[in-house]
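Exercise 7b. Backbone tokens:
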């Protein structure tokens, strides 16, 4: 399951200082080769040991002063880049981002290992009730929730990813290919119907259950690929759990 760079705030923030360090180091090595005519290994060594430059020019002619000035500038650039990287990591650590990303990576590994799980799209009252009942019945549950406040309220006992469940890439992250069922539990009939369409295309054998707010949506939902259609006023979350 691929993870985008945008899903890794620390890596995203560290890209620029890391690239800067690589560029400065590369420029330093190439510059020493061009200025003094030395090999790549010796030029690399000069980045950390300025006395080697003096020893070199004791036996070789060349622009010693310019080479030393260039070496000092490069070392300053390397030091500043390293400090930038350190500041980024420390800032992330004290800001809690490292802990959060480690938790996210652990969650993603657990999701990759899931099979025969139930994907619940939406963690409102209906979704929470259904998730609790399914967990009590021994089912593995994975929640997809787009709203940040609702997502933050999901307990650690429930696997969850944040995203729009209508999107194909989000459903793939939820491992719908190995899931036993998906439930469109959002308080939006049209959104749940769109989820049914996308999920059915990704996994034709997936059991699809869709929540709608009115009976007029039932036929549309079934044509969209829903195996069961739930109208909360008619059926409770407990009843739906018996289908799974």
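Sequence design result:
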């Amino acid at each position: 399951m691929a993870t985008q760079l945008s899903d890794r705030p620390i890596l995203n923030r560290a890209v620029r200082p890391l690239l800067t360090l690589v560029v400065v180091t590369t420029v330093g090595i190439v510059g020493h080769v061009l200025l003094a005519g030395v090999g790549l290994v010796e030029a690399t060594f000069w980045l950390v040991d300025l006395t080697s430059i003096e020893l070199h020019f004791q036996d070789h002619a060349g622009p010693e002063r310019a080479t030393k000035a260039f070496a000092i500038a490069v070392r300053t650039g390397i030091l500043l880049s390293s400090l930038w990287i350190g500041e980024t990591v420390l800032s992330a650590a004290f800001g809690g981002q490292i802990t959060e990303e480690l938790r996210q990576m652990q969650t993603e590994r657990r999701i990759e290992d899931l099979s025969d799980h139930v994907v619940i799209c939406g963690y409102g009252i209906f979704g929470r009730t259904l998730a609790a009942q399914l967990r009590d019945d021994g089912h593995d549950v994975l929640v997809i929730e787009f709203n940040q406040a609702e997502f933050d309220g999901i307990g650690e006992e429930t696997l969850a990813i944040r995203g729009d469940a209508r999107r194909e890439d989000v459903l793939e992250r939820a491992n719908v290919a190995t899931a036993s069922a998906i439930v469109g539990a959002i308080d939006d009939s049209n959104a749940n119907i769109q989820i049914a369409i996308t999920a059915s295309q990704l996994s034709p054998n997936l059991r699809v259950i869709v929540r709608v707010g009115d009976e007029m949506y039932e036929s549309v939902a079934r044509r969209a690929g829903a195996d069961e259609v739930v109208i909360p006023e008619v059926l409770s979350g407990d009843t739906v759990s018996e289908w799974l």
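Instructor comment: Residues 1-6 have pLDDT under 50 and may be disordered. The two ends are 26 Å apart (CA to CA).
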